[in-house]
Amino acid sequence: MKNYFVTGIGTDVGKTVASAILCEAMQADYWKPVQAGDLKKSDRIKVNKLISNRNSKCWEEAYALPYAMSPHASAEKAGIEIDINLIQLPPTNNNLIIEGAGGLMVPVKRNTLYIDLIKNFNAEVILISRNYLGSINHTLLSAEALMVRNIPVKGIIFNGNENEATESVILEMTGFKLLGRIDEGKIIDKFFVLEQAERFKYL
Q1: Per residue in 125-141, pLDDT tens?
Q2: Domains in the chain, CATH or no CATH each
Q3: Distance between CA atoms of 37 and 15, rounded to whole angstroms?
Q4: Cα–Cα 20 to 30 A to 92, which of 29, 33, 165, 177?
Q5: Are 119 and 104 in contact (CB under 8 A)?
Q6: Which residues are annotated as catalytic?
Q7: Which residues of 75-88 are buried (b: 16+ CB within 10 A; e: fewer)?
Q8: How far is CA 104 from CA 138, 183, 184, 200, 203, in A?
Q9: Is residue 29 over pLDDT 90?
């Protein structure tokens, strides 16, 4: 069984939808170590509603923090001390999709970034990129951070409308494998996830 850490080049690039699609394609389990804000509509709840297969299980977060802020700030505001040693992989025998928060350099606590946790999870990274002005810079910075730390990367997924000029230079300069593309969806529901999952069943 394999663990995959899904991270993005920033906030709102589509990590949660991508995680749901990958869970559906692989019939993998899902886990978000730290949820900050929207606890009644958490990413775990969203993914659980988007997947259709009966083999995937969505595991509870190690920390569910009440404020929609960086995890370190949300925890501090709530008076919670995050213990990194308590952020342990769920006891699954299935493939596992682990979703990060924001990007790689988001602080879980003041002395620990998300990128620091990845090696603890024995996971390959799947990087989600979305085309916008500045996305080349953000993608290449994320890629460099991973490579400098010798963190294994499964590949990159582009989310949204294609931009060949942007995507080709990213792939050339990183050497990352293109895992696939997620269409721009007007309605994100189970049917959309099932349709997109067909593209990733080879993983």
Answers
A1: 999 999 999 999 999 99
A2: 3-200 (3.40.50.300)
A3: 16
A4: 177
A5: no
A6: 32
A7: bbeeeeebeeeebe
A8: 11, 24, 24, 23, 23
A9: yes
Tokens found for residue 107: 């602080």
With cut-offs at 50, 70 and 90, classify the pLDDT of residue 194: very high
Place of tokens 């505001």: 77
The DSSP annotation for the chain comes to --EEEEEESSTTSSHHHHHHHHHHHHT-EEE-SEEES-GGG-HHHHHHHH---SS--EEPPSEEESSSS-HHHHHHHHT----GGG------SS-EEEE-SSSTT-EEETTEEHHHHGGGGTEEEEEEEE-STTHHHHHHHHHHHHHHTT--EEEEEEESS--HHHHHHHHHHH---EEEEE---SS-SHHHHHHHHGGGTT-
